[in-house]
Amino acid sequence: MLIELLKDLVSIDSSSKEGANEAVEYCANWLKKQGITVNVIVNNGYKMLVSEIGSGDKTVIWNGHVDVVSGTPDQFFPEVHEGNLYGRGAADMKAGVAGMMCAFTELKDKGLGLKIQLQIVSDEEIGGLNCSGYLAKHGYRGDFVICAEPTQLGIGLQAKGALQLDIEVSGKSAHGSRPWEGVNAIEKAYDLYQKIKELPFTRDHTPLYSSPSLNLAKIKGGDVYNKVPDACLLSLDIRYLPTQTMEEIIAQIKSVTGKNLHLNMYSKPVKTEESDPFITLLRPIIEKNTNRDAVIFGQHGSADTVFFAAYDIPAIEFGPKGENWHGDREYVNLESLAVYQKMLVDFASEFSLT
């Protein structure tokens, strides 16, 4: 059942809104055939489903997305080779979704001591605001969240925050043959970038991260060859640590750039602690099923966990083994997917015994 479900999901080209909505509808119909009640919600044209089983004072959310990045036509014809299933979205993250759906079905008639809320969404790859962001904002929240991103069966405990800035840099125009009479805004912008790279926030570290990251993403300036450019726009993509704040980083950058700074986008980091009781419960389950120590790590990017972490809900990324997501030969390891399903079932069952 698990592998056939995954094959069906990978066969759906869900790289567009229409395709992703089709994948959500497929999941809804599949769950209904298993006797599960499903609520399909639409926001700004994006579909998502929510279903809940169990009872108790605690709620664990299983969150997964079925939208994918674009791929070549052959990537939507899944193939199995040497224990791996290849196809667009196989790892990121239709395998995790299939594992959650099968575990959810397996648990539906058991007397669980907690509620499990399954959320399947259609817009994570473009930011997640229409689905997971909408669900979190409208009260579809719990005590712990698992997003089924491919983590090699490890626990993505934290995630860096994102900060995207535009900095306006002014110079003085002059004839291109006499650059000494002007101030080159592009050169000035690059000098500022070098100063930003040396600010104190760039040298911070935590047990899970050696540093934040600073990417000079775009630089725009000048319009003709024979003129010293008098304006330049510098665009930065900063991924900051869970121990840092957006406000402090912006204050440090303004100390060298002045006030011509515009915040384009930011998201808060995920700060789940290793001592969280849900992590304490999950960790030995991973170790029992993999025969090795559970790997705890911090993600450099972010996932839909950010929307729940914004409400101080502990959230993690936890999913099967795979490689090359967003790449040409994306695949998931099928043995790890079966183990992943079992660990989800064990997690719910163990909680019910505590």
Could you walk me through the main structural features you see in this protein, from its secondary elements to its overall organization?
The protein is of the alpha+beta class and 354 residues long. 32% of the residues lie in helices and 26% in strands. The chain is built from 9 helices and 17 strands. Strands 1-2-6-3-7-15 form a 6-stranded mixed beta sheet. A 4-stranded antiparallel beta sheet has the order 4-5-17-16. Strands 10-11-9-12 form a 4-stranded antiparallel beta sheet. A hairpin with a 2-residue loop joins β4 and β5. α1 packs across α3, α3 crosses α9 and α7 crosses α9. It starts with a helix and ends with a helix.
Overview features:
single chain; 354 residues; alpha+beta; 9 helices
Structure, briefly:
The protein has 354 residues and is α+β, with helices and mostly antiparallel strands. It has 9 helices and 17 strands. The strands form 4 sheets. The chain has a 6-stranded mixed β-sheet. Strands 4-5-17-16 form a 4-stranded antiparallel β-sheet. Strands 10-11-9-12 form a 4-stranded antiparallel β-sheet.
Care to count the β-strands?
17
| Global outline | elongated
Distance between the termini: 30 Å
Query: Into which percent range does the helicity of residues fall?
Result: 25-40%
Largest sheet, spatial ordering of strands: 1-2-6-3-7-15
Question: Radius of gyration from the CA trace?
Answer: 23 Å
Strand content: 25-35%
Mean pLDDT: 96
Number of helices: 9
Order of helices and strands: HHEEEEEHEHEEEHEEHEEHEHEEEH
